[in-house]
Structures are given as C-alpha cells and as structure tokens.
Amino acid sequence: MGTGNDRCLSQWHVYLGLAFAPVLAVIAATGILLGFYDELRYAEPPYRLNQAVEASLPTAVLAQRIQAAHPGHRLEVLYLPTAPERAARAKLAGPDRRLAFIHPETGQTLAVRDADEQDWLDFLYALHRGKPLGLTGQIIASIAGISIPILWSIGFLLRRRRSTYRTARQNSFTIRGLHREAGLILGGLLAVLTVMGSLLNFAGPLKQWLDPPPRLAGSRPALTPKDLAHHLSSAALTYPMAPLERIYFPADERSPLQLRFRDGGWAYLDADGRVLKIVTPLSHWTNLLYPLHSGRLWGTHGPRVTALFGLILFALSGSGLYLYCRRRGAVRKR
After folding, report:
1. 264-279: per-residue pLDDT in tens?
2. Which of 3, 100, 105, 128 is placed for a possible disulfide with 53 were both Cys, Cβ 3.0 to 4.6 Å?
3. pTM
4. C-alpha gyration radius of the chain
5. Coil, helix or strand for 130?
C-alpha cells in the first residue's frame, strides 16, 4: 500500500513539475536578472547622470519646472532620484503620453520618450510576470508559482518514506540526490517566495479590494506649487520613517495626492494637505508582498539573495527536466 502511494505521489511530482518547468525556468531566469535591477537600470543615460549632483531642487520647484517645460501636459507621476547619480523622471499625459528624464539639480529635461515604450529591462520585468501574454499569461505565471509549494509538499511526503530517505542519502552527490536535497532544504523558503510573487501579480486588484485608497468627499482645486510644498512638508512630518520616492498627482477631482516612500509606505492627502490615510509596509499584508518578494525589505543585499533563490529555482527546474528525459531514455532502451 505504501509503495503504491509512493508511486502515485512520485508521478504527481514528476508530471506537475514537467508541466510547469518551462514557465518556472523563464520566471527564474528573469528573476535572477531582476535581482540586479538597480544596477542594470541606472547603468547609463538617461537614467544615469553624467555627473552626480550635490543637491537637488526642492520637489515642488522641480515639479513646477517640469510643468513649465511641458505645457499642455499634465504631470501624472514624479519619480524622485534615489541616489545622487540618478535622474528624476516625470510621466506626463496630454496630446501624447511621455516620460521625461529631468536633471534634479537644474530641472532641465535631459531626454523624452513615449511613456508606453518598453526597453529590454521593461520587457524583462513584464516577462517575469507573464504580461506579454496578457491576463492569461499572468494567470499561468501565478499558477506556476503556486505549484512550487505543492511540489515541495509532495517531495517532503516522499522524503519521510524510509526507502526514499535511504536512496536520497546514498545518492546525495548525484543530480537526483542534489535535486532532492536542495528541493527539500530550500524548497520551503522558495515556496513562500513564489506564493508571494503569485499574489503580487495581482497586487493592484487585491489592494483595491482589501485596503482601498481613500477618495475625497468633494472636488478639489488645481494643485499649485505652493500647495504641493505645504503638502509634502505635512507628509514628511507624518511619515518620517523613509524618504519620499515618488508622487502620484490627482487623476481627477476626487482623487487624493498619493505619496510613495522608499520603504513601500504610502500617504494620502486631501486638497488642504491633511493626511487622510497612512499605509506602512506592516499595516496590511498586501503591502509586504513586494518588499519581501523583491528582497528590498532586507536592504541593499536583499535583492541579490532573491536572485540566488531564482538560481536555485532554475537549477531545480532544469535538473528535474533532465532527470525526466534521462528516465524516459532508459525506458525506451529496454
């Protein structure tokens, strides 16, 4: 009875792993590269400045100069530089949607491109989430991520069988043994990471459902540079835990001013600069998905640790596929 159960579990492990191995390999390979996103993204202009700045313009002044340089366009998002050698960015809407790269010390526009245009790193990030195939691709990527804890659970159950334990111990330095041991030892952490990634793929709808941002009761007047300076000062006093990273300007009369901080926190302000809501990474579990999955919660080296887990996932997918092909080849020779 036990042998039959073992055989059934083993077959489920093989077929489930085989079904998702190609998808997991793509997710792992792109995840490894995305672990070094900042180094890749800010390696050259226009994202990287030719010379680091000593001091940036006040944020409200920077926003004012961007609007003056792009008349007829509305400032949607302002990405502030997170290091002295990085340019600021502004996403603008108008007759066309554009992404402008701004010198943070002078407010000068360094370059402009179509906001919907993707470079290779944007495509890599989209591919990691399955977005090139639309909603179907995102669902497939998320299901593939959820398959990891299932595969690990099956492997754990097989590991508890005495015969499987002895086989794994005797062949611990073969490809099969390494596949088993690495999967069992690191598979639990890898399962947590991939489940968070699966949920993160739909973080926007999850937040709208479980922790929606506030809406203004009435219409708001146009936001002036003086208003913006006051609002930012108010937010800095309310949320001193991390520097401001980006600003989402109101899309309509009932939308609040949204501020995103470097630790993943948010602040929502009304037309008078009053803070309507503060969201910290710990205030709701959906806010922890990105910091944990990307490794940014652990500081500078966190994304590299996540990249290492991507390498482990890639090795497990590749070794599992190799073992299956080798077994099929042995069966055909009989």
Report:
1. 889 999 888 888 999 9
2. 105
3. 0.84
4. 24
5. coil
